Amino acid sequence: MELMCEHIGEVTVVVLAGAQLDASTTAEFKSDIAPVLEAHAQVVFDLSQLAFVDSSGLGALLSCLRHVHAKGGDLKLCSILPPVRALFELVRLHRLFHIFDTPEAAIRAFQP
Amino acid sequence: MYLILLTSKDQQEDIIAGLEAGADDYLTKPFDPQELEVRLRAGQRILDLQAALLTSLEKLAQAHQREAEIGAKIQQTLLLGKPPSGLVGARVAALTIPSQAVDGDFYDFFLHNCRCLDIVVGDVMGKGVPAALLGAAIKSSPLRALSCLLASSGQDALPAPEEIVGLVHSDVTQQFISLGVFATLCYARLDLDHGQITLVDCGHTKTVHFRHRTHTCELLQGDNMPLGFSEQELYRQVVFPLAAGDVVVFYSDGVTEARNAAGEFFGVNRLMEVIHAQHSLEPEQLLDAIRRAVIAFAGVETRADDFTCVVVTLAETRWAPSLAQAQCEVTSAITELAPIRAFVRAFCLELPGCGLDEEGLYQLELAVTEAASNIMRHAYHGRTDQHIQVVADAFADRIVVRLWHRGTAFDPKTVKPPVFDGSREGGFGVYIMTHCVDEVRYLQDEAGEQCICLVKKRKTR
Fold first, then answer.
1. Which of B238, B245, B249, B253 is nearest to B312 (CA)?
2. B319 within a domain of the structure (yes/no)
3. B125 and B182 share a domain?
């Protein structure tokens, strides 16, 4: 999956530019995202282009969240498409992630 | 009021005439004031007694009324299950109108999957609170028996109705005999995929079956005794074919034994006439037609018994072949997930009137993805050179996707429930799959090929 990173102040916004995050793409995603999470503690994932996520994809996102938390940072999500949002709610992940409608709102949420 | 005739007529016929006209006592003139006084006191005693009797009767009536209300409450809350809405290819409606003196009519439904439903209807002999309580006790017994058998079988196969009733029998019969009560019961399993109804008839009213093919009503019955008659009774099931457009009606004797002013029973023949004439109605409307026919026959006031009725109507097109079918074969490589999804999406979108909105489509894609990746990772243990055949069928009201494979059989019972606290990154797959479609079934054919079958309802317009 292609990842497009943009740094806005202290916050790194990553657009997950592939259409699907499923069992066939999670391994690649995890290895691609690892250096980003290594280097930055305040991260926003922009999911506006992600049309399909399955349980493996959720697992990968959860693994990112735990990685960032372990370093004392935070990972916020934004622009989730409605079907994917419904899936988050099905497995209660909306309670673990901070989810915002726009990247701007997610970035603002990092500011003290 | 107490009336003493004071009369100069002392002939016997005069006295009889006076008493017959409504007097309570008599004295002939000339009279003794003392005698009049004791007779008045006697009259007072009778009046007092009468008043006390009336008060007691009123209290008794109130107590009866309370008992009837308690019984009715028990019945509404404990005795009557909710007709399921999740059945695909058949619809169910149920109605109970409690009589003044509630008796122990009860019914319950166990939906095994969207094509298989167990219906229990029964009637405890007796009325009022004791019958309602006994009804509550026996109503919970089939569910207990079912759970118990499911837990002990350790297989996917459902316990047969005769096994379930057998267990209910051993559960309650001894107590019933010692209490001197009994219950009639009909345990029916509606299996739409196999086109059959299996029932164990424990002396209950004969189930009416309207057969669409022949346009006739038939009575379904077994020949077992009610529960509580004999400890030696062996309960046996009988199987009848069911087909598209058929109607099955269960009812309590309050329906057929409703009497008209001349004392005639409504009877099963009149019931069958109504069902025959109104078979094409929706189940709720057919119920109402039956109710109205019984009331028109008997009049509302004469209903001495509970009126309970459960109607199942089978959709007419159910066993038509699927409207559209497509299949694709892929390898067990994880890279095939996207092509499988694309195949399912394209199949749905090409249907005239897809019947799935974007969310529904996503849910079906998700379930198919979870099923396929389970097959790849667990059934084939990660081998990429195996095969998965995906067959999609469209019916008027549902889309069925079957994923066939030759890997290890999957046992859904071994799957642990998901953990939602973020402590585990996996374990959501089966949970997501079962929540995204209306039914998931695991099948195996005679040749040992395994299948995960996903059923998603379409919105019919």
1. B249
2. no
3. yes
| Dihedral sign from CA coordinates of B314, B316, B320, B325 | negative
Q: How far is B408 from chain A (nearest CA, A)?
A: 20
Residue of A nearest to B365 (CA): A52
Q: Are B75 and B93 found together in one domain?
A: yes
Element (H, E) at B407: none
Instruction: Say how far apart CA B292 and CA B250 lie, in whole Å.
Output: 17
B chain contacts of residue A20, beta-carbon cutoff 8 Å: 338
Per-residue pLDDT tens over the stretch B251-300:
988 888 888 888 889 999 999 999 999 988 889 999 999 999 988 888 76
Q: CA of A101, closest CA in chain B: separation in Å?
A: 19
CATH number at residue B335: 3.30.565.10
pLDDT at B128: 66
In a domain, B403, yes or no: yes
Residue B409: the pLDDT is 84
Whether the CA torsion B142, B146, B147, B149 is positive or negative: it is: positive
Distances (CA, A) of B407 to B382, B393, B404: 11, 23, 9
> Average pLDDT for residues B118-140, to the nearest whole number?
81
DSSP letters along B112-177, please?
Answer: EETTEEEEEEEEEEEEHHHHHHHHHHHHHHHHHHHHHHHHHH-SSSPPPHHHHHHHHHHHHHHHHH
Nearest chain A residue to B425 by CA: give it.
Answer: A59
Q: Which of the four pLDDT bands, split at 50, 70 and 90, describes residue B318?
A: very low
Cis amide bond preceding B30, omega within 30: yes
**Distance to chain A for B388, nearest Cα, Å:** 16
Nearest residue to B250 via CA among B210, B223, B213, B302:
B210
Residue of chain B whose alpha carbon sits nearest to that of A27? B334
Residues in chain B closer than 8 A to A58 (CB atoms): 428
Min CA distance, B316 vs chain A (Å)?
34
Hey, are the CB atoms on B369 and A63 less than 8 Å from each other? no
In a mutational test of the B interface, the residue from A1, A25, A53, A54 whose CB has the highest number of chain B CBs within 10 Å is A54
User: B335 CB contacts (<8 Å, ≥6 apart)?
Assistant: A24
How far, in Å, CA of B220 to CA of B443, rounded?
A: 30
Structural domain boundaries enclosing B378: 324-457
What is the ipTM, given to two decimal places? Answer: 0.90
With beta carbons less than 8 A apart as the criterion, state whether B432 and B366 touch.
Answer: yes
Global pTM reads 0.49
The domains of chain A, with CATH numbers, are: 3-110 (3.30.750.24)
